Amino acid sequence: MQGILIFDRENPEEEKSFLRACNADTVYSVLWDITQEVWRGYRKHGYSDKRLNDLLEGEHHEAIYEALEILEGKYLEILRERNIDLDCM
Fold first, then answer.
1. 1, 15, 81, 83: least surrounded by Cβ within 10 Å?
2. Domain containing 37: what range?
3. Is this structure's pTM higher than 0.70?
């Protein structure tokens, strides 16, 4: 099976679409890195940034964990709404 994308690169809007298509792998990598480095850290192994770890171990850690859970949920919801499944790409 083959797929071919055709763009009129003289059309400024299609040029933007062409550049987006060319950068799709980079965008995927960025989303994956955000998922692993930003969201996974608070659940699994902590962060390499001492300030974040200090916050997670501080007196308001429960509220911070709750905020992180809410923000991660919103992030994942946005991905789902746009049919982006990072595990199958």
1. 1
2. 12-81
3. yes
